[in-house]
Specification:
- It is built from 4 helices and no strands.
- By secondary structure, the protein is an all-alpha fold.
- The protein has one domain.
- Helix 2 packs antiparallel against helix 3 (about 35-75) and helix 3 runs antiparallel to helix 4 (about 85-100).
- One of its GO terms (biological process) is peptide transport.
- GO terms for molecular function: peptide transmembrane transporter activity.
- One of its GO terms (cellular component) is membrane.
- This is Peptide transporter.
């Protein structure tokens, strides 16, 4: 979950919103059209949503490694794995999945 609320991620979100707003304002001044707001800001929303879904996929991919390492350690009995560790990893996935479902 820290992936989505880290400083670089939030700065990028702010940068993207500012660039989209500046571009939309400039374009509407240069070539005004009744559908400009929908077309420009709608396209920016589609681009941002695609970017965000990629970030969710990266977060899920990053979760796989530690989770399956934990499962392998538990099954091979190479390390003692507590049930709290297992549920902690599952709750991490639940948080990422919640972000994925809500953001669609």
């Amino acid at each position: 979950m820290a992936t989505f609320s880290s400083a670089p991620a939030l700065w990028f979100d702010l940068y993207f919103a500012a660039c989209a707003a500046i571009f939309a304002a400039g374009w509407m001044l240069v070539a005004p059209h009744p559908w400009a707001t929908w077309s420009i800001l709608g396209s920016a929303l589609i681009l941002f949503t695609s970017y965000f879904q990629v970030q969710v996929s990266v977060a899920i991919n990053s979760w796989y490694g530690p989770f399956y390492d934990l499962v392998q350690a538990a099954l091979s009995k190479s390390a003692q794995v507590m049930v709290q560790q297992f549920y902690s990893e599952l709750s991490t996935f639940a948080g990422i999945a919640l972000v994925a479902v809500v953001s669609v």
